[in-house]
Amino acid sequence: MDDFKVIDNYLMIKMPEEIDHHKSTYISKTADDFILREKIGNIVFDFEDTRFMDSSGIGIIMGRYKKITYFGGKVYTINTDTRIRRTLMISGLHKIIEIME
Questions:
Q1: Which member of 7, 9, 24, 31 has the lowest number of beta carbons within 10 Å of its beta carbon?
Q2: At CA 62, angle to CA 32 and CA 101, rounded to 5?
Q3: Could you tell me whether strands 4-7 and 10-14 are parallel, antiparallel, or unpaired per DSSP bridges?
Q4: What predicted TM-score, i.e. pTM, was given to this entire model?
Q5: 3-state secondary structure of 61
Q6: Which residue from 99, 36, 86 is spatially nearest to 64, judged by alpha carbons?
Q7: Which domains does the chain have, with CATH numbers?
Q8: 4, 30 Cβ separation under 8 angstroms
Q9: What is the enclosing helix (H) or strand (E) of 3?
Q10: Amino acid 2: pLDDT
């Protein structure tokens, strides 16, 4: 569970090397548990180790975005490489989340 940390009111999620359907279910459920259990204001997805993300990765971000904005929070991404950033741009997620440099 090292991939999920609460720092202040931020849920930090270290994304895996490959994000596919199987991993997305676990990530989404665990993140939702944290959102409901802890005092989470914002979510930060850390893509430092991620080399591959299919549409299920977009689903993870969209689902958490819908939940956290309901409580007035924001979603951020950090350490996005060129491929991940391109996926976020093509999907339109860059319009609703903050992609940090």
A1: 7
A2: 100
A3: antiparallel
A4: 0.95
A5: helix
A6: 36
A7: 4-99 (3.30.750.24)
A8: yes
A9: none
A10: 73
